[in-house]
Write a structure and sequence with these properties.
By secondary structure, this protein is α+β, with helices and mostly antiparallel strands. 53% of the residues lie in helices and 8% in strands. It starts with a helix and ends with a strand.
Length: 466
């Protein structure tokens, strides 16, 4: 008997992915991209045009290398930004319905890379994970089930087993494992108080977050979440019910975060990434439940063309690309937690690692107060209107959405980008009011919130002429 025989028997069960799971991930990622675009659309002029907070000249100065990855640099007009948003939405729809699925995933990866590189301050870990999942999808058979690509082919009820399936599984586990290592370095996570700190920060909590803040269950939740992160390698090593229960527990934690914290689509992207670990019995049950709906949508008489499966590159080349991508994931992740040293790169691995409130959670609330002085001497809050207020602010008014939250909380550490924000505020004020602004002074206020709120600390980020 060959020594590799046991490996051949156990490997597919651990690194193989049910093709229905791949289809579910494809649909989920496409829908999440559409939701994310809808959330960004109201601020498209503010964040993605030359008339906004980050004109292309300032972007190129602040990020000379990464900015070249963005198609948005071809024009700074609102029309061009709107066109790219529409193109991204079209690619997301193609991914959802499964039309040329792999090509749609690759196109969507390029378009999202362009979108995020246009304004790095409003891209969080969820955006990075979303892009990487889409890139892996370009090498996976995501169109074999529940897709237009599979409409005229025999149903595929098998598992996909390849370097790419191993790669996407490792990618997801690495996110949790790196986060676990970083959290274990923080004393507040080990002692169980970290989650209590997080929920005391008003600017972070939304929805049900204010209701659970301060409850004793948060201490239990802190230990439980850390334990789940430490056990995350079992997503690959375990099988059957153990793997399913771990997926359910992690997904439940992410859904709780989505309902209580200002994290955008990040928790939902994490839930989508977990779908690849669900075993065939789960998808058998899903198909039984959804069969009536799928039967109504199915049209055997349809004569739509069946596209050839992307990619057209030779299989050895595809395997080489996926192997390189897997090696990159492993090396970059080890470098991000200090286990490896990599040559100088445009982006430091430690600046783009899966830290998420680690090693220490955020303990201070913060808000921005841009104070404008009009030509007749009046002082106003040029972002929200009215008189400047430096006391504890309403987080809903301070941060209208996740994009503004990410941007304004990053501004204190991005000195080169502050003039762009000041110019944007000056232009916006002058368009909306009869009085004109002479100067804008940017203030950032912080307040420690745990265990008891401290006195707010006001800091000026600079004064800028209009």
């Amino acid at each position: 008997m060959s020594l590799l025989a046991p490996l051949r028997e156990t490997l597919p069960a651990r690194v193989g992915i049910d093709t229905r799971g791949l289809a579910a991930v494809r649909i989920a990622l496409g829908l999440l991209v559409l939701c994310d675009l809808a959330l960004r659309l109201p601020d498209i002029a503010a964040f993605y045009t030359d008339a906004g907070v980050l004109p292309r000249s300032l972007l190129a100065e602040a990020y000379p290398t990464i900015s070249q990855l963005s198609l948005y640099l071809l024009s700074g007009s609102l029309a061009w930004g709107t066109f790219l948003f529409g193109l991204t939405a079209l690619a997301a729809v193609a991914l959802v319905v499964g039309y040329r699925s792999r090509l749609a995933a690759l196109v969507l990866f390029v378009l999202l890379l362009s979108l995020h590189a246009r304004n790095l301050l409003i891209a969080n870990a969820g955006n990075w994970l979303l892009r990487r999942l889409l890139l892996w999808c370009a090498f996976l058979p995501i169109g074999r089930r529940w897709a237009l690509d599979a409409r005229h082919v025999a149903a595929d009820r098998g598992r996909a087993v390849s370097i790419a399936t191993l790669g996407v599984l490792v990618q997801v586990v690495v996110v949790y494992a790196v986060n676990a290592v970083l959290k274990l370095r923080g004393d507040r996570w080990v002692e169980g108080s970290a989650v209590q700190y997080i929920y005391q920060v008003d600017s972070l909590t939304v929805g049900l977050g204010d209701l659970v803040a301060g409850t004793p269950l948060l201490s239990v939740g802190s230990h439980a979440w850390l334990a789940l992160l430490v056990c995350s390698p079992l997503l690959v090593l375990a099988r059957g019910h153990v793997r399913t229960l771990l997926v359910a527990a992690l997904a439940g934690g992410h859904l709780f975060m989505f309902a209580t914290l200002r994290l955008g689509v990040f928790p939902l992207v994490s839930v989508a990434s977990l779908l690849v670990f669900l075993p065939p019995p789960v998808w058998d049950r899903v198909e039984r439940v959804t069969e009536p709906l799928r039967a109504r949508l199915r049209d055997p008489a349809a004569a739509l063309p069946t596209p050839d499966d992307w990619p057209t590159v030779p299989r050895p080349a595809t395997q080489t690309l996926t192997a390189v991508a897997l090696a990159f994931v492993l090396v970059w992740s080890l470098a991000s937690i200090g286990f490896l040293t990599v040559p100088a790169a445009p982006v430091d691995p430690e600046e783009r690692r899966w830290d998420m409130f680690a090693p220490q959670p955020k303990t201070a609330d913060s808000w921005s107060v841009p104070v404008g002085t009009t030509t007749d001497g009046q002082r106003v809050d040029v972002f929200r209107g009215g008189e400047p207020q430096f006391a504890v602010a309403d987080s809903g008014a301070t941060y209208p959405n996740v994009s503004w939250y990410l941007y304004l909380t990053s501004l204190p550490d991005a000195a080169t980008l502050r003039p762009g924000f000041a110019d944007y505020l000056c232009d916006r004020w002058d368009r909306r009011h009869d009085s004109r602004l002479a100067t804008v002074e940017l203030f950032h206020v912080t307040q420690e919130m745990y265990p008891e709120p401290s006195a707010p600390d006001r800091r000026s980020l600079g004064t800028f002429d209009c």
